[in-house]
Amino acid sequence: MRDASARAREFNAKYDEYAAMVYRLAMVYLGCHADAEDVVQEVYEKLLHYNGTFESEEHLKAWLLRVTANCCKKLRGSFWNKHTVALSEAIPAQNEGEGELLELLDALPEKYRAVLHLYYCEGYATDEIAAILGRRAATVRSQLSRGRALLRDAWKGAEDV
């Protein structure tokens, strides 16, 4: 059994490395800074109490994204969330050029936002996205294609203005 200080250092390192990724996905799903922070806290609480082992860093990363997606779906389906109106907030950009793209992405329906975010921002393949989101791979490919078309149309519309 590892000592508590080594476990705490390992947990803090995982938080520092992946918290921004978890937060960005939560923002894609929820669009609210406070809710996204709550989801990050919930995901890392689940990680803290997780007793299993991860085969690799990719396995840990996929686990975090899957838990994030599930927490977001649970929060969106809650009574409170169904009976309140959220204030619109922008998804935080990783770099300067990404801000405009994220604004256009935020305007898309959620089913396309999540797929496009995981594909382009996080670098996952369609089969991996299907496993993370609990959808069929063919569905993910269709949503990716439709989302790209909607994003392309929105991009052209933004350039015309």
Describe it.
The radius of gyration is 17 Å and the shape is globular. The chain has 8 helices and no strands. 75% of the residues lie in helices and 0% in strands. About 4% of the residues have low confidence. Helix 2 packs across helix 3. The relative contact order is 0.11. With 161 residues, the chain is an all-alpha fold.
The stretches of 5 or more residues where confidence is low (pLDDT under 50) are: 86-91
Strand-and-helix sequence, N→C?
Answer: HHHHHHHH
Oligomer: single chain
Structural category: mainly alpha
Alpha plus pi helix count:
8
Shape summary: globular
Task: Throw out a few tags for this protein.
161 residues; mainly alpha; 8 helices; 0% strand
Describe the SSE topology.
Elements: H1 4-30, H2 33-49, H3 57-76, H4 79-82, H5 98-106, H6 110-121, H7 126-133, H8 137-160
What can be said about this structure in brief?
With 161 residues, the protein is an all-alpha fold.
